[in-house]
């Protein structure tokens, strides 16, 4: 079932940018006090800065509202793509909605706050490095990033259980009304491909998804079985098919820049305090997407 979009389903003609930058963050996980303090310090360097938020703001609806409201008040435009944690039905969350109903709730929250979400017209960045269409995606995963030697979803999940590496999504992320997350993922892929195909011929994009669009970033995971919960092989060529200038993602908590077919891929996550603490600094600033750093 496709959610209704605000206005035209494909494009937002109200461009922006001016003298600012297109910036990005992800995996803010504001339930941690240390991360919440970092988010409280996030501010634009220019009044025209836009901010991409590539998922995993938090698990509780109240925390998500707090963070998105704060950022929307500070940045000229905020663009959000959901992560898996926002979609959890957490036992301590007063909002008990599951699956697509929870996603609909988050879409309504974004529209209330003036935050662009995947169901809205894609905004046009006309600042430095533009014009490009900024495309927030909601695609999920379909268990096709499988461990070597496994050829089915069932075999891959069995391997993960044997290794003791099972995503928390299996207990907290519900696919309702779909039979499974992979079914929901296939629906999201089809709906999104239809919208992307309707973009103007030759129009460049910045593709934003919580999960990596390609398998390569997961190759360095400490536990390779976790890749099952990290994306879909179906999007491996989307950076070419949809003329990406940059692809922005998070989820892995391994911030870095990679290149595929001449396209820049930016992992922009903050991650958990124990992770960014190992990097030796509590200083976190949004990653500049455009103009190119």
Summarize the SSE layout with pairings:
Blueprint: E1 11-16, E2 22-25, H1 33-41, E3 50-53, H2 61-74, E4 77-80, H3 99-113, E5 122-125, E6 132-136, H4 153-163, H5 169-172, H6 181-197, E7 205-208, H7 238-241, E8 244-249, E9 256-260, E10 263-267, H8 273-278, E11 287-290
Parallel strand pairs: 1-5, 2-3, 3-4, 6-7, 7-8, 8-10
Antiparallel strand pairs: 2-11, 5-6, 9-10
Helix pairs in contact: 2-3
Structural write-up:
This protein has about 290 residues and is α/β, with parallel strands linked by helices. It has helices at about 35-40, 60-75, 100-115, 155-165, 170, 180-195, 240, 275-280, and strands at about 10-15, 20-25, 50-55, 75-80, 120-125, 130-135, 205-210, 245-250, 255-260, 265, 285-290. The protein has 8 helices and 11 strands. The strands form 2 sheets. The chain has a 7-stranded mixed β-sheet. Helix 1 (about 35-40) links the parallel strand 2 and strand 3 (about 50-55). It is globular and about 55 Å long. The termini are far apart. Residues about 5-10 have low confidence and may be disordered.
Summarize the entry for a quick read.
The chain is of the alpha/beta class and 293 residues long. The protein has helices spanning 33-41, 61-74, 99-113, 153-163, 169-172, 181-197, 238-241, 273-278, and strands at residues 11-16, 22-25, 50-53, 77-80, 122-125, 132-136, 205-208, 244-249, 256-260, 263-267, 287-290.
Keyword list:
293 residues, globular
Which structural category do the helix and sheet elements fall into? alpha/beta
How much is the radius of gyration in Å?
18 Å
Counted beta strands:
11
Apparent shape:
globular
Mean pLDDT: 93
| Separation, N- and C-terminal Cα atoms | 39 Å
Q: Secondary-structure element sequence?
A: EEHEHEHEEHHHEHEEEHE
Number of helices: 8
Strand content: 15-25%
Helical residue percent? 25-40%
Largest sheet: 7 strands, mixed
Strand order of the largest sheet: 1-5-6-7-8-10-9
Stretches with pLDDT under 50, minimum 5 residues: 4-9
